[in-house]
Predict the structure.
Amino acid sequence: MSTPQSAPGPQPDAKPLRADAARNRLKVLDAARAAFSEHGPNAQMDDIARRAGVGVGTVYRHFPTKQALAQAMMEQRVERIVTFIQTEMLPDPDPWRALARSLEFCGTMQEQDRGYAEAVASVAGGTSVGGGMKEAGPALIEQMFALTAVFIERAHAKGVVRADLTAADMSPIYAGLSAVVLAGIPDWRRYVEILLDGLRPQPDR
């Protein structure tokens, strides 16, 4: 198993953003998530600037293209997932509880951010990250998968999940949840319970 890697940091000669510039960047990312959730790829930079309360020039200074903005949004999402695994899942002495919390966390993110839900749905039918999730970059994706593998290994050691569950299975599982969320089913947490029932240890047949 590969050792989890740290998220890529700035290059040594990169200058940190001023506090006001950093705040504006976060405002733009928040506004972009709302705009992309509402309009998809047809979201416009001037609309994003209006939602963020900044000039359109500020948007372009941080993100010269819509592609750069989409990449930054996905990086931020995956960084949030990595942080959740590191700070909430791995330290939890009860891996079954942590697994249930991860599905709740993922479903809530998808409910609040349609763009993220669509990116997760892109892996349906496979076991690798595809579509929009690739925008986060290979280093972050590798780190997320490595941490997931560590967690699944711990869950097996505790005997709380079915014997054939692998880290690679988690992507299509989360993709299945995203399909429920994207369908607008209000009680998506019921499907979390159904998923969890399928992940429990299976009696010998």
Summary: Confidence is low (pLDDT under 50) at residues 1-13, 125-131. The radius of gyration is 18 Å. DSSP finds nine helices and no strands in the chain. The CA atoms of residues 3 and 146 lie 7 Å apart.
